[in-house]
Amino acid sequence: MKAAALARTRARRGESMRAGRNGMAPALVLAAAGLAEPEAAIAQAWLPPRGEASVTLGYQSYRSTDRYTTSSGERYYDGLTQQHALVGYVSYGITDRLAVSIGLPPYFISSYQGPDPHRWPVMDGEKIARDPSGRGLFHPPTLDDGSYHGTFQDFGGELSFMALQGPWVVTPFVGFQVPSHAYEYHAQTAVGRQLWDLRIGANVGRRLDPILPDAYVHGRYAFAYREAAQDLRFNYSFVDLEVGYFVTPSLSLRIMGFSQIAHDGLKDEEYQLTEPPRDGYSLSQWVYLNVEDKLMRGQPGLPVALRHDQLDHSTSINLGVGASFAVTSSLGVTAQVFRTVWGRGGRPTDLAVSFWTTVSFSPSRLFGKKPPREAGGSVPSLEPAGERP
Fold first, then answer.
1. Are strands 53-68 and 75-93 parallel, antiparallel or unpaired?
2. What is the full DSSP assignment across 279-302?
3. What angle do CA 321, 338, 255 make, to 5 degrees?
């Protein structure tokens, strides 16, 4: 009787971890260039069984009104940016320890209302053109005109290998992110930096047995080697931490922290402003006029400043909470909310709310073939080694 009860308890825990895979993930997207880069909600140490696929569709709403200085982290009003995003990705278990995930380009619709809409300067050779009175000339905003504009962002993908499966699960990965097209990056509402990057890192997870058998901890580190812009390459690190608890076998709650760390990037003092913008100029326009006869990073300042949305230093820490519910063994839904609590440079997230759903299935079964697991493969256990009944 005791052995049977123990077996049922351990089986329930294993099912809980499997049901929770759909929820063990960081934010769907952290929208906007200059903020944390979009991270697919696919990062986890526990991989799907061999032959199992999943499709995830999600939505996120994002709002920001301020900007951080890079020196002291003070916040100042920089206009209201609002974004809505649709996200989708697919995952597949190649083996019990090897999986691949492909992220489709998120679709953003965004709007900006504020004092600094980004406008490209009218160029006269290598200088900004002037009118007869000597004022610099600028084109109308391409995106920051107060209306909503929509476009796709980046493709992404990861190949993950579960190197250690025991009390601690360790899953290294390699990944990529590449723009889906030449979208506009010079805008408050730019959907991304329009730069590719290559990523390498690891996911680490553990169920908190024997103290809290229905709780888990999950961490992730990724280093992003990013494409250079204007011959300047600024790489980033991303660090995530999540602690969750299964209230029931189907319902899990979690607390999340995720951050991006800029290893380099353009900082406020590099723009060498000696006075505030004059009447009729926005901050970015005044920056461009101020640096066109100066050097930045050893090269003419204006071309570098015009790439500031791609090259600005941006480090941030975000905190959030989330909940996941397994409707069935193959259908899960998740909701979460987060905001930025600390930063240097870039736009802090005032509030981001996301929802998504994941459907898991076996392609072999759908096409009438015998699933690999039934053909002699093993079903991976997410229970710590040595604890099977």
1. antiparallel
2. TT--HHHHHHHHHTTSEETTEEHH
3. 25
- The residue behind tokens 């015998």 is 370
Tokens (6 digits) for 265: 């990037």
Q: How would you label 10-28 residue by residue, b for 16+ Cβ within 10 Å and e otherwise?
A: beebbbbbbbbbbbbbbbb
- How far does the chain reach from its first CA to its final CA, in angstroms? 13
**Measured between alpha carbons, how far is 181 from 197 in angstroms, rounded to an integer?**
15
pTM across the whole model: 0.85
Cα–Cα distance between 215 and 163 in angstroms, integer? Answer: 22
Dihedral class, residue 230 (left if φ above 0, else alpha if ψ from -120 to 50, else beta): left
**Residue 379 vs residues 18, 66, 189, 237, 371: alpha-carbon distances, Å:** 11, 49, 45, 34, 11
**Length of the chain measured in residues:** 389
| Digit-coded pLDDT (tens) for 128-169 | 999 999 999 999 999 999 999 999 999 999 999 999 999 999
Q: Cis link prior to 210 (omega < 30° from 0)?
A: yes
Closest CA to 217 of 201, 235, 204: 204
Residue 90: strand pairing partners? 55, 102
Hey, what's the torsion of the CAs at 73, 77, 79, 83, to 10 degrees? Answer: 40
Q: Dig out the tokens for 174 from the structure.
A: 């390699």
Per-residue pLDDT tens digits for 300-313: 999 999 999 999 99
Report, in this order, helix, strand and coil percent for the chain, each rounded to 5.
10, 45, 45
CATH H-level superfamily of 15-366: monomeric porin ompg (2.40.160.40)
Angle at 173 between CA 168 and CA 179, to 5 degrees: 145
CA dihedral 130, 136, 141, 144 (to 10 degrees): 180
The angle subtended at Cα 99 by Cα 106 and Cα 360, nearest 5°, is 65
What residues of the chain score a pLDDT lower than 50? 1-43, 371-389
* SS3 state of residue 130: strand
Q: Residue 164 pairs with which residues in a beta bridge?
A: 170
